[in-house]
Amino acid sequence: MSGSQKTWTKMFALLAALLLVAAACGNSDDTDADAGGESGEGSGAASCAVEDLNLVTGGTLTVATGEPAFPPWVGVGDDNFDVPESKTGYEGSLVYALAADLGFADDDVVWVRTGFDEAIAPGPKNWDFNIQQYSITDVRDEVVDFSDPYYVTTQALVTFPDSEFANASSVGDLKGALLGAQIGTTSLDFIEDVIQPDTEANVYDENVDVEAAMNAGQIDGLVVDLPTAYFIIAVQVEGAIIAGQFDADAADPEQLGMLFAEGNSLVGCVNGALQNLKDNGTLQGLEDTWLTQDGGVPIIGN
Amino acid sequence: MSSVGPPSPEGPEIGRARLLPTGLGLRAILREEGARSALIAASSTVLLIGLVLWWVLSSEAWPAVQKQFFSPVHFRAAWPDVLGGFWLDIKMFLVAEVLILVIALLLAMIRSLRGPAFFPLRALVIIFIDLVRGIPIILLILLLGFGIPALQLTGVPNSALFWGVATLVISYSAYTAEVYRAGIESVHESQRMAARSLGLTQFQALRYVLVPQAIRNVVPALLNGFISLQKDVALVFVLGVREGVREAQIYTASTFNYTGYLAATVLFLSVSVPLARFTDWYTERDRRRKQAVGS
Amino acid sequence: MGSPKVEIKDVAKSYEGKAVLQDVGLSVDVHEVVCLIGSSGSGKSTLLKCLNLLVPIDSGDILLDGKSIITGSVNPNEVRQKMGIVFQSFNLFPHMSVLQNVILSPTKVHGVSTGEATDLATQLLEQFGLLDKIHEYPDRLSGGQQQRVAVVRSLATKPELMLFDEVTSALDPELVAEVLGVIRGLKDDGMTMIIATHEMGFARDVGDRVCFLDQGVILEHGPAKQFFADPQEARTRQFLQRIIEAGRL
Fold first, then answer.
1. pLDDT, tens digit, for every residue of A206-215?
2. Across the interface, do B253 and A183 touch by the CB < 8 Å criterion?
3. Where do the domains of chain A lie, and which CATH numbers do they carry?
4. Number of domains in chain B
5. Which residues of chain B make contact with A217, given a CB cutoff of 8 A?
6. ipTM score here?
């Protein structure tokens, strides 16, 4: 008995020692990586000709989106749900516009799907960039690269008309609300930093879970970016309304960017193409087509 | 059979030594053998861990992985929220476990009642257990957690936390009832007969005679269930509940750094490993005690 | 003797098509001791378990104090409260002390207070020489002590009739006498008893009557002395002869 106990003690001691060594090695690597990691960002390749681009498959622009991808971002129209090849939706049509500007034919655009975690995990990627409403933040920028923003949005509150929060006019009116948000969105940061409700917000994986929670009466309302809010009230949660959009000054507005693997030189060329679309008014056109709704939404001020 | 009273002071080692031709000399050799095997075990473990570490650390991708999974800065940043969420996990675990132990026992007792009069009750319990065990627990959480509140029944709570814990109780009660039932059936039939011959009703026989012996037989299995539940409580995050794993996910989603998961892992291990060691220790002690009484 | 305490009428029982009891009829008077003998598997144990309603009979009737205990309206627990049974394998409850074993039925079934039940248990245990074992657990007792505790446990329910199912068969030979002594004592107190046993000498001394069961049938029965001295049936003589050859009579 005592012999085997000693064995265990020894083994644990050694294991602990080894882990410490590993951690120590790791620390020095960490600083190196941080120091060198960002240097290549934005510098771009010398040429943005298709044959010179850094692509996972030569001659093809491989773009990742969500599984499934939701309107109004991708696949708008009854037969087009989750069909990015339909060239509909704001992000869907933007990708084809960018591809054309970079010199790709429509047929050279190939779509792949990723979940949230696959997109951000380290390791080789099977796509050139990933577009699914990623918000640009500094912390995220440390481990991936973002394009320049392709859309700036505000946060909105979705609730039911008979809710006591349907007529909220300032964030102070929402202190007592049990709110929900989707994981990975800046909506959650907005709730915690700006609204600061008395009860911690619930956090859901997917749009559909938020819908279920709304219908189950488990949350009073949902904070989400305005374009998605329109989609939710139109399609997902019957009878829900947009109670208002939050004053853009109340927090940093949410900027959406395309996500690239850390250090990918492609980002410079895509930024160039994006700038061209901004300059020639194409981007505004896409926004008007896919994201802008008739009728104003009241502002919920500070 | 079941065992009572203190374990025999002479463990199996003495029994083994007695079989050997010369007591003292051989025991010294045995002790030496023990020291040598401990040394071999330790050095081979070190070698193995060293090889694995070398293999992992020499990977070109290691710096990137290290930064995204093992960052001390992010560990510290994620820790308070993950710890707060984990505390909720512990509370859910404790509340659920107590309810499970009681409800599962009732289910097992109903299932163990004999005679045609109890057929409807028995059938209900069997249907319940089969249904619940046949549905993946995550699906059950989604179905009950979102489904029942959506019915908007008066008097029925609609909190996600309530239904998350309730689903765990329902699911684990079905499994645990089967553990208890196996325990009840492991008690010899003559005990039931003796109890009944003294005029005890079926329920009294279960309550006073069969169940106390059964529980003793299934404690290790119940403890294994504890370990399993202690991890499965995290599943209620699908309902939006901000427990430990969810907090880690939130951190990861907003920073793109996985070190929050490491914090959650450390927390779960800090409970499940001691629980696993305790289960092994208890099972071993129980086995010895039974052997001591049986010999 | 008065009216019969128990009357068994044409009882039959079979397990999976194999007849274990056939046309068994027997009547036992108050204060009478009847011994059931016969080889293993002859149906002695089954008959006792049928009497205690632990095993349901296929046909026939059993009367206790002149009333059938077979009809559906009878509560088996009430019948068992009048009838104690002691088993070959003791069947003490291993998780309970001697005292707890003895007072379980009085307190939970008969509604006696714990104090009263403990008093009675103490008195009975003293009477059977077990008082020093009152707080022991069964696995610390010898087989003979365990079997005596089992008898006490049964007596504590104040039965009007005691059934003994080969209560010495699982005991080491040197422990048999102490258990048989206990049963002799009960006879002296006037207890009505049905005893299935392999101890022929004991059956002859203690039994008022002896029944010989063979393949589920009562082949022969009569006053004990006469039964052993002058058996009528060839099978009975054969059985007794084997017993004598084995040195057990």
1. 878 888 898 8
2. yes
3. 53-152+255-295 (3.40.190.10), 155-252 (3.40.190.10)
4. 2
5. 149-150, 152, 158
6. 0.89
